[in-house]
Task: inverse folding
């Protein structure tokens, strides 16, 4: 019985050692150095090469190394096996710290003052008045984000595919609910999962539903945004600013226009980084469950895509 860690371009020795301590007697191997592919019954994945899982004939279950699964399910040869994702309070805490910092950055106009500094301009301004906030996506992270900003005094709306009930939050759902969720927001935070239904969701038509001068923060997936539509909305002033932590292609190519756009703040996908010590217990427990034929913790509904 072997667990394969198929997470290209990352140092995995720490994860390997921690899993060995949590699962004595179980072989923990880092792809592509697998002693016997037929012995692998469980795989931990993140951006695995397409088709690689077909080389592991005795897999019983799959585990994402993060909260998202889009980099896994895009594999056209993905086997029809149970797939779990990470649900980690440390990820939520990391996300909330990031979003609190970005909200303060814009509320205090630090984006404007940074541009003024480049021009040696001294122009004091009062903080922005940000009162209403919309969270797109009300899953684990989205619901926590909505509750956090509601506690900070914001009027918060939320939107999701299906109806949610979160005390203190005006929740909207479905195609008809998107416009009323968005139209009064000063700040929009995207925390949607990437699915066929959300790919390119934030296009010209949806961006036009937002209040002129809105600020957009995307910490979900880059492909949810129509990049050309966003750039056009920033140029027209429909959007005042955008903070992007995720992109269609990562690392973001040096030639991408986002790099030099004065209204765009870029961070390199660091809003919620998986911590090894936080996920080992979940991986180990799901391995045990897979070996016993039990349902996995945080198992994904592949029909819905999350």
Result:
């Amino acid at each position: 019985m072997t667990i394969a860690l198929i997470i290209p371009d990352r140092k995995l020795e720490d994860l390997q050692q921690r899993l060995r301590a949590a699962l004595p007697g179980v072989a923990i191997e880092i792809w592509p150095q697998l002693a016997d592919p037929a012995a692998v019954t469980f795989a931990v994945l993140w951006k695995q090469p397409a088709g690689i899982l077909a080389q592991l004939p005795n897999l019983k279950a799959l585990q994402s190394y993060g909260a998202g699964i889009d980099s896994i399910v895009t594999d056209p040869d993905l086997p029809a096996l149970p797939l779990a994702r990470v649900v980690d309070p440390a990820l939520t805490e990391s996300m909330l710290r990031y979003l609190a910092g970005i909200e303060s950055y814009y509320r205090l106009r630090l984006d404007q003052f940074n541009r003024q500094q480049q021009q040696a301009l001294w122009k004091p301004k009062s903080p922005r008045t940000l009162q209403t906030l919309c969270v797109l996506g009300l899953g684990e992270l989205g619901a926590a984000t909505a509750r956090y900003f509601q506690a900070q005094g914001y009027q918060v709306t939320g939107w999701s595919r299906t109806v949610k009930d979160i005390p203190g939050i005006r929740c909207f759902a479905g195609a008809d609910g998107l416009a009323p969720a968005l139209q009064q927001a000063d700040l929009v935070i995207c925390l949607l999962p990437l699915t066929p239904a959300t790919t390119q969701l934030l296009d010209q038509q949806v961006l036009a539903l937002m209040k002129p001068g809105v600020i957009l923060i995307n910490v979900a997936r880059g492909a949810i945004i129509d990049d050309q539509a966003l750039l056009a909305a920033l140029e027209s002033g429909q959007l005042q600013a955008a903070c992007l932590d995720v992109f269609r292609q990562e690392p973001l190519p040096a030639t991408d226009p986002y790099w030099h756009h004065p209204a765009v703040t870029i961070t390199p996908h660091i809003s919620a980084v998986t911590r090894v010590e936080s996920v080992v217990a979940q991986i180990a427990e799901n391995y045990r469950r897979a070996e016993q034929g039990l349902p996995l913790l945080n198992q994904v509904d592949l029909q819905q895509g999350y």
Q: What stands out?
A: The two ends are 28 Å apart (CA to CA). The mean pLDDT is 96. The chain is about 30% helix and 20% strand.
